[in-house]
Each structure stands twice: as C-alpha cells, then as structure tokens.
Amino acid sequence: MSYSKLECFENYKKWVVTNPERLFQFETAGRFLSYLIAGRIKTSPAISELLYSASNIIIFLNDQIILRSTHHQELDPKTATVVEKCRILFTVLEYLQVFLEITATKIWGSYGKWTAVAIVQLIKFLWRVFMLIQQAGIASSRAIRPLNRKKLRQNQLSESKCNIEGKNIHTFTLKSGRVIRQVNGAPQIHKRNWKLPSSQPPQGHVVNNRKLEGYPLLGEVLYTLKPLCHLIAMSRFGTKSWIPTSIAFVTDIANAKEIRRRQIALLMYLLRSPIYDRFSRTVILQIMTYLRKFPVVGILPQQFLQYMLFWQNVYCYTWD
Hints:
- It contains 11 helices and 2 strands.
- By secondary structure, it is an all-alpha fold.
- It has a domain at 149-184.
- It has a two-stranded antiparallel ribbon with strand order 1-2.
- A hairpin with a 5-residue loop joins strand 1 (171-173) and strand 2 (179-181).
- Helix 4 crosses helix 6 (215-237) and helix 6 (215-237) packs antiparallel against helix 7 (242-253).
- The chain is globular and about 80 Å long.
C-alpha cells in the first residue's frame, strides 16, 4: 500500500512538471468553483472556504514540486531542516485559518470562534518572534511566498540556452568528463571581474537579510504584537469599540520606514468596524448600487454585497 502511494505521488510530480498549462487550468477551476458556490447553499461559506483553502494548499504543493524539480532537489521531509518544516506548516496554517474559524463558529459558536482565532494568532505570533530573533528583519505575510512560475520558466529557458551555446562554442569536454573553456570564449580582459558567480537562493525561499536596528526594530516588534494586543483589547472593550482599532492602527504606523510597504494594508481599515459601520459602509453601498445598473458588470456588485456581511464577521479576513 505504501509503495503504491509513493509511486502515485512520483507519477503526480512528473505530471505537474511536464504539464504546466493543464495544471494551471485545473488550479484556476478549483478557485473559481469556490467563488461560484459562495452564497448558493445554506452551508456555502464553510464549503466555499474548504474548497478555497484546499486549492491554495494544492497550488502551494505544486509550487514546491516545480521549484524542487527546477533546482534538482528532492521533496524529502527527512532532509528538511526544522526551520523549513516550520515554514511549510506556517504557510499551510495561513491558508487554513479562515476555514478553521468558520468551522469552530459553526460547531461551538462565538466561544469556539474566538478560541480558534486566539490559538491561530498565538501560533503565528510565536513563529514571527522566532524569525525576528533569527533574522532581525521584516516580517512577511507569508512564510513561503507563491511561486512566480512564468518568471521561473523564463529564467530556466534562458539559462539552458546560455549553457547550450556556451558548451557548443566556447567549451570542450575531456575524456574524463571535465568541461574546459576555450581561450577565445573568455570575455575581454578589461571586462573580467575575476569573481565567482553569485549564488542566488531559489524562488519561493527568499530569505530577507535586511537587518533592523533601533526604532525600526521596535516598530517591527510592535507590528508582531499587534494581533495579540488587538484581541486583548477586543475582549476588554468589545468588537465595535474604537480602542482596538486605534491600537492596531498605531502599531501599523509605528515604523515610519516601512509605511510604504504596508500602505495597502492600511486601506483595510475602511472595511473594519467601527469605521466601516459609521463611514465607509454607506459610500461602498452607493458605489455598488450605481455599478449594478450596468448590464455586464452588474452581477459582480450584487455578489459582492451578498458576501460582504459574511466577510465582515470573519476575523481572519478583516484583521489578519
């Protein structure tokens, strides 16, 4: 049984590497299906999030397969370091957190919802503190970022083309198998730098080496503490109070040097209570009502308004 499962997984990895176009079609169909069933049936939020989370995890797995095959590495958990395993688990948790919150709400009610949110945020806080101690750098919204397959494919083709041209024109191979570069294959002497080629980390595992010190580091610590501070303030003052929102906003802008990177995240405050309830809700409803008059795009605002109420009640959507 174990051998057959291993053989099926090996066949699946080969199919992923050799059929990128068809793979993209299946992945897109899975995401579109989760959007399509949202609001259609009674339990659609849970089913929709389950499909969306599953599709994201499958895409993440496919990214790792493509990345490892490109760099001739094996996807073997025995050889992976503890940090790499934690990165994978943290990324999977990021994709599952909304589904876990919705499931806990349906089974245990409000108490289960906030318990699940607190556990998820505590795990993420411990992970970010660990990475902050290890790197003293900027925290990322994803432990492992989605792979840019198009760019990776272009780089792979250009590298293989250069290698083929270089071997055919400027190199020859000895009987021992050693590749020797010809004298006329070297660049002009004034263009040589006599340095070894720089080794770049593979895409998807880019490590941020930018060190933070002083006030920027303090701002990053506050940014890491924001979810826990916000949850504590919400439990003390309520979900509709201005105090939790103010605390979260202050921690977001504490590090002025990183405000450009997070200015898009600051726009999310327009969709968060109490700002959404008192100000932005009316404006959004007016814009969506106006867009519904157009025949082609009129369906999208209607779907957006139907999903907006559910979206507002999910903590991981609005505040994470």
